[in-house]
Amino acid sequence: xxxxxxxxxxxxxxxxxxxxxxxxxxxxxxxxxxxxxxxxxxxxxxxxxxxxxxxxxxxxxxxxxxxxxxxxxxxxxxxxxxxxxxxxxxxxxxxxxxxxxxxxxxxxxxxx
Length: 112
What we know:
The chain contains one helix and six strands, in the order E-E-E-H-E-E-E. Strands 1-2-3-6-5-4 form a six-stranded antiparallel β-barrel. It has one domain (8-107): Thrombin, subunit H (Beta Barrel), CATH 2.40.10.270. The chain is globular and about 45 Å long. With 112 residues, it is mainly beta.
């Protein structure tokens, strides 16, 4: 189980809301930034090949306490840690009641 002192890394969660335009495609409506403390676990890096260009990805796992904000997080949102922006790969909920946690896995390269 995670101890309260482990939530020490300040992060910025950029929650994006989309709206459908008259042509049927989606556009960014609003972006709201929330600062939350997280437990950060660095995962092994990886490579991504796109248009014959190799890019290195930093992979990370963020653990947050469950709250109403964390229910809004999905894969179109980003998390800023230091100077790096991480795109969310997966969202996982663990625990029950006041011990519920949200585990987000992210990477630095484009989300494509």
